[in-house]
Amino acid sequence: MKNLLYIILPCAMVLFTACEDEFIDLTPPASITDDVYYSEAEHFLTGSNRFYPYLLTWRDDQGIFSDHGSDLVGYFENGGMQDYGRGQTLAPVDDEYYTDTYEYIRDMNLLLERAESYEGEESIAEYVAATKFHRAWQYFFLVQRYGGVTLVTETLGIDSEELDAPRHSRYEVVAQIISDLDDAIAGLPNELIIGSEDKGKISKEAAMAFKAEVLLHEATWMKYVGTTTDGDGTSSGAGSAGFDNANITPYLQEVVTLTQSVMNSGAFELWDYNSSLDNLSSNFLFNLEDSGSNPAGLDKATNKEFILYGKYDFTYRQAGDLVSHVYEGRLKPSRKMMDLFLATDGLPITDSPLFEGYANTPDEFQNRDYRMRAYFTYHRNLGEIPQNGDVLLSGTNNYGYFNSKFMSWNWGTEDAYRVTKTKAYDMPFIRLAEVYLMYAEALYELNGSLTDAEMDESINLVKARAGLPPISNAFLSANGMDIETEIRRERAIELYAESASRYTDLKRWGIAEEELGEAIYGAVIEGTVYEGNADLYSPSSYNFAPETTTTGVGERLCIVIQPESTRNFDRDNYLFPIPTTQTGLNASLLQNPGY
């Protein structure tokens, strides 16, 4: 049974207007039970509101699902996603991401059951639709993490058959996710009619964008991964029950339709204030609070890019360790990430005459995609780029670079806008830039190409904010480039450190073994200010000797963060193991392959 505190606290955290009144008006704790609570429309409102914090559940573990441990990150430690990225995951006894998620789903199922018998006069359709969205969100999380899982759409008793049943296949669970999202889309309000006091609530467009994400994920998973990760997950004994290659094309076609609807809704626009922020929109977008959070005096009201996001507030819900420690330290970029950024002529650095190399610390930042400086330099003074000696190569996790995406302005100085653990900017789950990239990718997967017009209404809009010229089929052909590579490059760069995009992308494209199996490198040593300079670089302070790898100027000696021999990610690692406590309780709940 849920007591009063459990009902109202998340509501206060999500910052919806009615929350303060609910502290006063709700019935005392002793009289609130599952049986009597859902009797008024206001109860369904409060009940659906308290599911919003569950969207953030897997970010509570120090940024564990934010590219941490991926091939794009130059950081080393043992445990968590670092071990996962190296293919070192073992089946745990318990896993809160499994048990907690089912607790959330149980609460959602309860609300939906009570809604079926609700007889009040005031409509609860919007609250039911929001709850359907939340249930779909939680099940998609389970599918991404474990593949097939037990599908539960009603509250269970101690004798319920589901407690001893086999898992459903991922395809069966996805069918339920799609059904829930269709109901959510039908019942949710459009973004443009949601009042300012309710910003952060799920809109029709947010549900459409999320459905597009689900469909794109599953279509590409079926295309590139197929049934290779499926276990023995259903009552029929076939973990691939419901798999149908024929779904790939209609899924992708619907992604195009859904993303076009969001793009054409008039509710969203890219947050581009480069002219007043020294081309640093891609930094300040991710630490936007009130007018004091950036040198241009912009606040959250200016942000129409976030479509689905976690709502934070300095008074009611501060982000704490979520960003102030994790993002700065654990998301420093790897050599691969730094070299992904194009030059301002739109060419890879290996082909561009504008690339200035690595000899001095500032050189590689010159004439590059704006996002490189936005993400990986501090912005205590606009226009600042690290100078020689700013980054000392003196031991573990000093590999040559900073991270400043999701870091408050002037973080770490006496003039910092927010002190440690008090960040309060919103955290995006889906934003317009990602919708543009989903649209482009779905078209490519359907047709093998994009027209120039399709590039102009999607990927080129993202590139423009980054200071890059538009691409066209003629440009790509003339420069030996291809649209698939550019779409995937844009996802890696634009969505860096957001919602585990790198891991999910590599897996659904079927290339995680290759990309995560490579050595991770840091700063270039050979031919740079660091070479032979004991004041800037101490080779003996590192665990591994430097190695030669491909860089923007050819083969060069670089710092080794993790050698190839320690990275053994394989197909079995695409899914996490089911906790052994659960498999022990239910003999029909079989483990994922490889564990």
Characterization of the model:
The chain has helices at 4-14, 19-25, 34-37, 41-49, 80-85, 96-116, 125-146, 170-187, 204-224, 248-263, 281-284, 321-324, 326-330, 335-340, 370-376, 432-447, 452-456, 459-465, 473-478, 483-494, 501-508, 512-516, 580-585; strands at residues 306-310, 427-431, 520-524, 547-551, 554-562. The chain is mainly alpha-helical and 595 residues long. A three-stranded antiparallel β-sheet has the order 3-5-4. A two-stranded antiparallel ribbon has the order 1-2. A hairpin with a 2-residue loop joins β4 and β5. The model is unreliable at 1-32, 58-64 and 233-237 (pLDDT under 50).
What's the average pLDDT? 89
Strand percentage lies at under 5%
Which segments are poorly predicted (pLDDT under 50) over 5 or more consecutive residues?
1-32, 58-64, 233-237
* Separate helix tally: 23
**Helix/strand-derived class?**
mainly alpha
Following the backbone from N to C, one meets helices and strands in this order, namely: HHHHHHHHHHHEHHHHEHHHHHHHEEEH
In total, how many beta strands?
Answer: 5
Radius of gyration: 24 Å
Q: What is the first-to-last residue Cα distance?
A: 36 Å
Shape: globular
Placed side by side, the strands forming the largest sheet appear as: 3-5-4
**What is the helix content?**
25-40%
**Quick one: biggest sheet?**
3 strands, antiparallel
What can be said about this structure in brief?
The protein has 595 residues and is mainly alpha-helical. The protein has helices at residues 4-14, 19-25, 34-37, 41-49, 80-85, 96-116, 125-146, 170-187, 204-224, 248-263, 281-284, 321-324, 326-330, 335-340, 370-376, 432-447, 452-456, 459-465, 473-478, 483-494, 501-508, 512-516, 580-585, and strands at 306-310, 427-431, 520-524, 547-551, 554-562.
